[in-house]
Amino acid sequence: MRVLVIEPYADLRMEIAATLRREHYPCDAVADVADAAQEIGRHGYEHIVVDGDSMRALVASLDPAAHVISLRKPFGRDELIRAVK
Amino acid sequence: MSDEDRSRRVLIVAPVGRDAELMCTHLEAAGMPCHVCADVDEACLELARGAGVLIFTEEAFTSDASPRLAHALDQQPAWSDVPMIILSAVPSTETKSRSFGAFGRRTNVTFVDRPVRIQSLVSAAQTALRARERQYQIRELMDKLEDRVHERDRFLAILGHELRNPLGAILLASQMRDEDGRLDGEHAELIERQSRHLTRLVNDLLDLSRVVSGKIVLKRQVIDLADALRQSFETVTESASRQSVTVEVRYSIEPLPVYVDPLRAAQILTNVIGNAIKYTPGGGHVIVALERDGDQALVRVADDGVGIAADRIGTIFELFAQAENAIGRAQGGMGIGLALVRNLLQLHDGTITAESDGLGKGSEFVVRLPIFDGEHVPLAKTFERAPAHDGEPRRIVVIEDNVDVRELLRLKLRRLGHEVDAVADGLAGVQAIVDHRPDLALVDIGLPGLDGYEVAARVRRSVGNDVVLVAVSGFGQPEDKRKAMDAGFDEHITKPADVSDIESLLSRLPPRREGM
Is position B376 within any domain? Predict the structure, then answer.
């Protein structure tokens, strides 16, 4: 169950990815949609965590099979893990 | 006719005889532009386009016209109470009460008895127009107020957004503790980094607010600008290293005396250099050059970073400018820093400009300050470093009602080898100081019951100057510091208190007394 994180804020991106990996989710993290498109071309993702609702539709069009998740910041580990379960 | 002219014209509805034409002639002769309407319907249409005053003769008020006029008046904006003058031959009864009944609650109505003396009509119209002018002034004030409300809403929206990212990172990092509750270095460093980022953001906001409201107090002295630059360089070294950005500083061979507040000068340069580092990718370069240009000292800060788009360069020093571009958001920049720099420089008669060949082509910021040309005075020695901390253990009392802050301070100071007593309120604090005679007491100002000022006063009365008292306060304005000093404190630290601030204080303490 691979997860892609799209988050421009570097430290937050790092922590989201670290949290997911600690819970044994294979995870890639990128800063923007352009990088995300490349990653999506390489892997299939079950979940994609995005920064804000405005990105949802665009990301969904890149990978219609993925479950696109947008959480209201700041969110904690439990909320994040619940969303990708 | 312009909107402004229309808003000051007199609309006349006098359907019988030559009344309209005569009124128009006399009012225009008195400087009041007029528009004659054939009936109330036309007056309603023209009212929507703008009018200063409405003049009707009673014949205009046909039974079906009144509701339409009432409806048109209802459509006016909230600030509008357009004056009306009604010319009536009926001295006191039917017409007046009927008209007041229909319009009196909505608008200013003045009755002028017929036959009308021209001077009376002109005078009534002038009075009505003056009243209308005051309504326009209210409208302008309301527009300005509305702009302020929009500006405030925008500010709150941006602030909320900018707080979410660092808070999100801190929250997730704080939950990365291991089974023993310990946090590894990487996540702890991130929490510290993001906390410092939030602290800077709050400090910049407070500073900007003080500059804009004229409350900032500059302690100006003549310094060599190179001293301020050295201080700034030290401050930004860590972030440059973390981002793998090389910063090269080229000092002037001659001293460049400037008459500035040294701390603010360093703040200006730290902000500009820090900004260049922030917008330069890893492996990039920032070159800072200090030089003289005639009667001005120049600091050039050039980078090979992301650059500035041509359409943004004119607004780069405006509040929130960086918050509105994608790079700024990604870097956690609200766009306060450069706005603050420009305002601080203006207070010092200085300027800042920015140039860039476009996105991806780097940028150059140039800070200019006037060279001090007064009589020769020795340059002040700024940023003098306290001697290094000798590592001597000290006895410290912490008085802080916030349990988390208190315990963190206790823990950190104990880790540094000091003996710490931490209490939650002022009375217990005074008692602890009297009982333990510490070298240093950190006293929160906003304590319940006995506040920090009263604690200081009581301690001074009880033990004199034997203990160094440090006020720890969320308020860092010069007047707050003065108030603390007046109450008996020796030093003032603005929250959040950093352990390095406390260490710096400890390093300046006289040698420990015997008997500890």
Answer: no
Calpha distance B336→B319 (Å, rounded): 6
Angstrom distance (rounded) from CA B38 to CA B457: 82
Beta-bridge mates of residue B285: B246
Question: Which of B301, B36, A38 has the alpha carbon at shortest distance from A4?
Answer: A38
Q: Which residue of B has its CA nearest to A12?
A: B169
Facing residue for B194 by CB, picked from A11, A22, A31: A11
Structural domain ending residue among the three candidates B321, B354, B370 = B370
Model confidence over B58-99: pLDDT tens digits? 888 887 888 888 889 889 988 899 999 989 887 665 656 665
Structural domain includes residue B388: no
Residues B433 and B488 both lie in one domain: yes
> Among candidates B20, B21, B22, B66, which has minimal Cα distance to B44?
B66
pLDDT at B391: 67
Q: What is the pTM of this model?
A: 0.62
Domain that holds residue B442: 395-507
Q: Summarize pLDDT for B479-512 with one digit per residue, the tens.
A: 777 788 888 998 888 887 777 778 777 877 766 5
Decide if A15 and B172 are in contact by the 8 Å CB cutoff: yes
Instruction: Give B-chain residues touching A9 at CB under 8 angstroms.
Output: 165-166, 168-169, 329-330, 332
Answer whether B169 sits within 8 Å of A15, measured CB to CB: yes
| Cβ within 8 Å of A, B 174-203 | 175-176, 187, 190, 193-194
A contact residues 37-66, partner B, Cβ 8 Å cutoff = none
Within an 8 Å CB–CB cutoff, is residue B172 touching chain A? yes
C-alpha triplet B485, B491, B496: angle, nearest 5°: 115
